[in-house]
Design brief:
264 residues, alpha/beta, 38% helix
Protein backbone atom coordinates (compact mmCIF):
# COMPACT_ATOMS: atom_id res chain seq x y z
CA UNK A 1 0.00 0.00 0.00
CA UNK A 2 1.40 3.40 -0.95
CA UNK A 3 1.48 6.30 1.50
CA UNK A 4 -1.17 8.08 -0.57
CA UNK A 5 -3.47 5.03 -0.58
CA UNK A 6 -3.09 4.62 3.18
CA UNK A 7 -3.88 8.29 3.84
CA UNK A 8 -6.97 8.13 1.61
CA UNK A 9 -8.35 4.85 2.92
CA UNK A 10 -7.82 5.51 6.62
CA UNK A 11 -9.71 8.80 6.36
CA UNK A 12 -12.79 7.05 4.94
CA UNK A 13 -13.98 5.65 8.28
CA UNK A 14 -15.02 9.07 9.54
CA UNK A 15 -17.44 9.61 6.64
CA UNK A 16 -20.23 7.93 8.62
CA UNK A 17 -19.08 7.53 12.21
CA UNK A 18 -22.60 6.84 13.47
CA UNK A 19 -23.02 3.90 11.08
CA UNK A 20 -19.59 2.57 12.08
CA UNK A 21 -20.59 2.70 15.73
CA UNK A 22 -23.88 0.90 15.09
CA UNK A 23 -22.67 -1.73 12.60
CA UNK A 24 -19.24 -2.86 13.82
CA UNK A 25 -19.54 -5.90 16.12
CA UNK A 26 -16.73 -5.17 18.61
CA UNK A 27 -14.43 -7.77 20.18
CA UNK A 28 -14.78 -10.86 22.41
CA UNK A 29 -14.99 -10.13 26.13
CA UNK A 30 -12.48 -12.89 26.88
CA UNK A 31 -9.85 -11.00 24.91
CA UNK A 32 -9.96 -8.08 27.34
CA UNK A 33 -9.92 -10.39 30.35
CA UNK A 34 -6.77 -12.00 28.95
CA UNK A 35 -5.24 -8.62 28.09
CA UNK A 36 -5.81 -7.28 31.60
CA UNK A 37 -4.18 -10.36 33.13
CA UNK A 38 -1.23 -10.61 30.75
CA UNK A 39 -0.43 -6.88 30.81
CA UNK A 40 -0.95 -6.66 34.57
CA UNK A 41 -3.52 -3.89 34.28
CA UNK A 42 -4.93 -2.20 37.36
CA UNK A 43 -6.72 1.08 38.16
CA UNK A 44 -3.24 2.63 38.43
CA UNK A 45 -2.27 1.67 34.87
CA UNK A 46 -1.76 4.22 32.13
CA UNK A 47 -3.00 3.11 28.70
CA UNK A 48 -2.54 4.68 25.27
CA UNK A 49 -4.95 3.52 22.59
CA UNK A 50 -3.95 4.18 18.99
CA UNK A 51 -6.96 4.66 16.70
CA UNK A 52 -9.85 4.35 19.15
CA UNK A 53 -12.58 4.76 16.52
CA UNK A 54 -15.87 5.10 18.37
CA UNK A 55 -14.52 3.55 21.57
CA UNK A 56 -15.37 -0.14 21.24
CA UNK A 57 -12.03 -1.29 22.66
CA UNK A 58 -11.70 1.73 24.95
CA UNK A 59 -14.69 0.93 27.15
CA UNK A 60 -13.34 -2.35 28.65
CA UNK A 61 -10.12 -0.56 29.61
CA UNK A 62 -12.00 2.37 31.10
CA UNK A 63 -14.17 -0.03 33.10
CA UNK A 64 -11.00 -1.39 34.74
CA UNK A 65 -10.32 2.12 36.04
CA UNK A 66 -7.20 2.61 33.91
CA UNK A 67 -6.22 6.10 32.84
CA UNK A 68 -6.76 5.94 29.08
CA UNK A 69 -5.48 8.39 26.49
CA UNK A 70 -6.96 7.61 23.08
CA UNK A 71 -5.58 9.06 19.85
CA UNK A 72 -7.98 9.21 16.92
CA UNK A 73 -7.42 10.58 13.42
CA UNK A 74 -11.08 11.38 12.64
CA UNK A 75 -12.88 14.22 14.45
CA UNK A 76 -16.21 12.55 13.62
CA UNK A 77 -15.17 9.21 15.14
CA UNK A 78 -13.71 10.97 18.18
CA UNK A 79 -16.99 12.84 18.75
CA UNK A 80 -18.94 9.56 18.86
CA UNK A 81 -16.30 8.02 21.14
CA UNK A 82 -16.57 10.95 23.56
CA UNK A 83 -20.34 10.50 23.69
CA UNK A 84 -20.02 6.74 24.24
CA UNK A 85 -17.43 7.20 26.98
CA UNK A 86 -18.79 10.30 28.68
CA UNK A 87 -19.34 8.43 31.97
CA UNK A 88 -15.61 7.71 32.24
CA UNK A 89 -13.62 10.73 33.50
CA UNK A 90 -10.48 8.59 33.25
CA UNK A 91 -10.60 8.70 29.41
CA UNK A 92 -9.11 11.49 27.29
CA UNK A 93 -9.43 11.53 23.49
CA UNK A 94 -6.97 13.47 21.36
CA UNK A 95 -7.77 14.14 17.70
CA UNK A 96 -4.52 13.80 15.83
CA UNK A 97 -2.71 11.38 13.51
CA UNK A 98 -0.59 9.14 15.70
CA UNK A 99 2.44 9.96 13.58
CA UNK A 100 2.21 13.64 14.61
CA UNK A 101 0.87 13.16 18.15
CA UNK A 102 3.09 14.47 20.96
CA UNK A 103 3.03 12.12 23.95
CA UNK A 104 3.20 13.32 27.55
CA UNK A 105 6.43 12.92 29.51
CA UNK A 106 5.00 10.21 31.76
CA UNK A 107 5.32 6.83 30.00
CA UNK A 108 2.49 4.34 29.52
CA UNK A 109 2.08 0.81 30.84
CA UNK A 110 0.19 -0.37 27.76
CA UNK A 111 -0.05 0.75 24.14
CA UNK A 112 -3.08 -0.86 22.47
CA UNK A 113 -4.30 -0.67 18.91
CA UNK A 114 -7.43 -2.54 17.80
CA UNK A 115 -7.69 -3.09 14.02
CA UNK A 116 -5.99 0.26 13.45
CA UNK A 117 -2.22 -0.27 13.66
CA UNK A 118 -1.91 -1.23 9.98
CA UNK A 119 -3.15 2.25 9.03
CA UNK A 120 -0.18 3.90 10.78
CA UNK A 121 3.05 4.68 8.89
CA UNK A 122 5.08 1.44 9.17
CA UNK A 123 8.32 3.39 9.66
CA UNK A 124 6.89 5.07 12.76
CA UNK A 125 4.35 2.86 14.51
CA UNK A 126 6.47 0.27 16.37
CA UNK A 127 9.42 2.55 17.30
CA UNK A 128 7.08 5.27 18.56
CA UNK A 129 5.06 2.75 20.59
CA UNK A 130 8.30 1.55 22.18
CA UNK A 131 9.37 5.12 22.98
CA UNK A 132 6.04 5.79 24.71
CA UNK A 133 6.13 2.67 26.91
CA UNK A 134 7.87 2.28 30.25
CA UNK A 135 10.48 -0.50 30.46
CA UNK A 136 8.63 -3.85 30.41
CA UNK A 137 5.46 -2.07 29.30
CA UNK A 138 3.21 -3.94 26.87
CA UNK A 139 2.39 -3.40 23.21
CA UNK A 140 -0.92 -5.10 22.38
CA UNK A 141 -2.25 -5.37 18.83
CA UNK A 142 -5.69 -6.68 17.91
CA UNK A 143 -6.40 -7.94 14.40
CA UNK A 144 -9.73 -9.27 13.14
CA UNK A 145 -10.30 -11.34 10.01
CA UNK A 146 -13.27 -12.90 8.27
CA UNK A 147 -12.56 -16.64 8.08
CA UNK A 148 -14.23 -19.67 6.57
CA UNK A 149 -17.34 -20.72 8.40
CA UNK A 150 -20.72 -19.26 9.17
CA UNK A 151 -23.08 -19.22 6.19
CA UNK A 152 -20.42 -20.58 3.84
CA UNK A 153 -22.68 -20.94 0.79
CA UNK A 154 -23.47 -17.22 0.83
CA UNK A 155 -19.82 -16.18 0.96
CA UNK A 156 -18.94 -18.54 -1.89
CA UNK A 157 -21.76 -17.15 -4.04
CA UNK A 158 -20.93 -13.57 -3.02
CA UNK A 159 -17.61 -13.88 -4.83
CA UNK A 160 -19.48 -13.55 -8.13
CA UNK A 161 -20.94 -10.21 -7.01
CA UNK A 162 -17.49 -8.92 -6.10
CA UNK A 163 -15.93 -10.09 -9.35
CA UNK A 164 -18.67 -8.33 -11.32
CA UNK A 165 -18.66 -4.99 -9.51
CA UNK A 166 -15.30 -4.58 -7.73
CA UNK A 167 -12.38 -4.59 -10.18
CA UNK A 168 -9.86 -5.15 -7.36
CA UNK A 169 -11.33 -8.54 -6.51
CA UNK A 170 -9.01 -11.53 -6.87
CA UNK A 171 -10.76 -14.12 -9.10
CA UNK A 172 -11.82 -17.24 -7.25
CA UNK A 173 -10.90 -15.87 -3.82
CA UNK A 174 -12.16 -17.75 -0.75
CA UNK A 175 -11.99 -17.11 2.99
CA UNK A 176 -9.17 -18.98 4.72
CA UNK A 177 -9.66 -21.38 7.58
CA UNK A 178 -8.69 -19.74 10.87
CA UNK A 179 -6.08 -22.47 11.40
CA UNK A 180 -4.38 -21.47 8.13
CA UNK A 181 -3.80 -17.84 9.17
CA UNK A 182 -0.38 -17.65 10.82
CA UNK A 183 0.62 -15.56 13.80
CA UNK A 184 3.17 -12.96 12.78
CA UNK A 185 5.36 -10.71 14.93
CA UNK A 186 8.06 -10.05 12.33
CA UNK A 187 7.63 -6.27 12.43
CA UNK A 188 7.88 -6.21 16.22
CA UNK A 189 10.86 -8.57 16.14
CA UNK A 190 12.72 -6.45 13.56
CA UNK A 191 12.53 -3.41 15.82
CA UNK A 192 14.61 -5.14 18.52
CA UNK A 193 12.72 -3.07 21.07
CA UNK A 194 10.55 -5.87 22.44
CA UNK A 195 10.87 -9.36 23.86
CA UNK A 196 9.25 -12.45 22.31
CA UNK A 197 5.63 -11.95 21.26
CA UNK A 198 2.71 -13.89 22.75
CA UNK A 199 -0.29 -14.84 20.62
CA UNK A 200 -3.91 -15.46 21.58
CA UNK A 201 -6.73 -16.32 19.17
CA UNK A 202 -10.51 -16.07 19.46
CA UNK A 203 -13.00 -17.53 16.96
CA UNK A 204 -16.60 -16.38 17.11
CA UNK A 205 -19.66 -15.81 14.93
CA UNK A 206 -22.00 -12.88 14.42
CA UNK A 207 -25.51 -13.10 12.91
CA UNK A 208 -26.75 -10.46 10.47
CA UNK A 209 -29.95 -9.55 8.72
CA UNK A 210 -29.71 -8.34 5.13
CA UNK A 211 -29.83 -4.73 6.28
CA UNK A 212 -27.31 -5.08 9.09
CA UNK A 213 -24.86 -6.92 6.85
CA UNK A 214 -25.04 -4.27 4.13
CA UNK A 215 -24.58 -1.62 6.83
CA UNK A 216 -21.48 -3.47 8.01
CA UNK A 217 -20.03 -3.50 4.49
CA UNK A 218 -20.48 0.27 4.34
CA UNK A 219 -18.05 0.61 7.26
CA UNK A 220 -15.25 -1.04 5.25
CA UNK A 221 -12.89 1.15 3.25
CA UNK A 222 -12.83 -1.11 0.13
CA UNK A 223 -16.64 -0.83 -0.14
CA UNK A 224 -16.82 2.89 0.57
CA UNK A 225 -14.02 3.65 -1.88
CA UNK A 226 -15.83 2.08 -4.84
CA UNK A 227 -17.47 4.45 -7.32
CA UNK A 228 -21.08 4.83 -6.23
CA UNK A 229 -22.68 3.05 -9.24
CA UNK A 230 -20.49 -0.02 -8.70
CA UNK A 231 -21.00 0.12 -4.93
CA UNK A 232 -24.78 0.29 -5.31
CA UNK A 233 -24.77 -2.65 -7.71
CA UNK A 234 -22.51 -4.68 -5.43
CA UNK A 235 -24.71 -4.11 -2.39
CA UNK A 236 -27.86 -4.88 -4.36
CA UNK A 237 -26.32 -8.13 -5.62
CA UNK A 238 -25.30 -9.21 -2.12
CA UNK A 239 -28.61 -8.17 -0.59
CA UNK A 240 -30.50 -10.16 -3.19
CA UNK A 241 -28.42 -13.25 -2.42
CA UNK A 242 -29.20 -13.00 1.30
CA UNK A 243 -32.91 -12.43 0.76
CA UNK A 244 -33.36 -15.01 -1.99
CA UNK A 245 -31.20 -17.88 -0.77
CA UNK A 246 -30.88 -17.38 2.99
CA UNK A 247 -34.24 -15.93 4.06
CA UNK A 248 -32.73 -12.59 5.00
CA UNK A 249 -30.24 -13.90 7.58
CA UNK A 250 -26.57 -14.95 7.45
CA UNK A 251 -23.79 -15.66 9.94
CA UNK A 252 -20.21 -14.46 9.60
CA UNK A 253 -17.27 -16.19 11.30
CA UNK A 254 -14.46 -14.08 12.74
CA UNK A 255 -10.94 -14.72 13.93
CA UNK A 256 -9.67 -12.08 16.35
CA UNK A 257 -5.99 -12.26 17.19
CA UNK A 258 -4.25 -10.60 20.15
CA UNK A 259 -0.48 -10.11 19.89
CA UNK A 260 1.43 -8.91 22.95
CA UNK A 261 5.07 -8.02 23.42
CA UNK A 262 6.88 -6.41 26.35
CA UNK A 263 9.34 -3.59 25.84
CA UNK A 264 12.89 -4.60 26.68
Amino acid sequence: MTDADREFLRAIFGQDAELYDQARPGYPAQLFADLARLAGLSPQSRVLEVGCGTGQATRPLAQLGCTVVAVELSPEMAAVARRNLRQFPNVTIDVCPFERWTPPETPFDLVLSATAFHWIDPDIRVPKAADILRPNGTLALIHSEHVAGGTERFFIDAQDCYERFDPKTTPGWRQQLAADIPDDSSEIDRSRRFGPAQFHRYEWEQAYTTRSYLDLLMTYSPTRSLPQPDRDRLLACLGNLIDRDHHGHITKRHLTRLTLAHRT
